[in-house]
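anyone seen this seq b4? input:
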Amino acid sequence: MREIGKGIGEAKARVQKLAGIPLLMKVSEGRGRSALFRASIIAVFPAVFTVKTENGEVRTFSYSDVHTRGVMFLPDDK
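predicted toks r here
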């Protein structure tokens, strides 16, 4: 479910602020499943952003994923 009163532009601004910072990410994988991993945002583009996980995997997400809470950034306890 998307955040009421907030737009894609605000999701994009939030992602840009977090670029380069180690993050704990929760990603919805559908049907009630989700993945939790540590990553950092390595590139920000007009429609998508790219993250690199701590095991070296590179994944790309859209800002609408952040807007609809398919991708969430959580506080890292490390």
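The chain has two helices and five strands. The radius of gyration is 12 Å. kinda curious what u guys think
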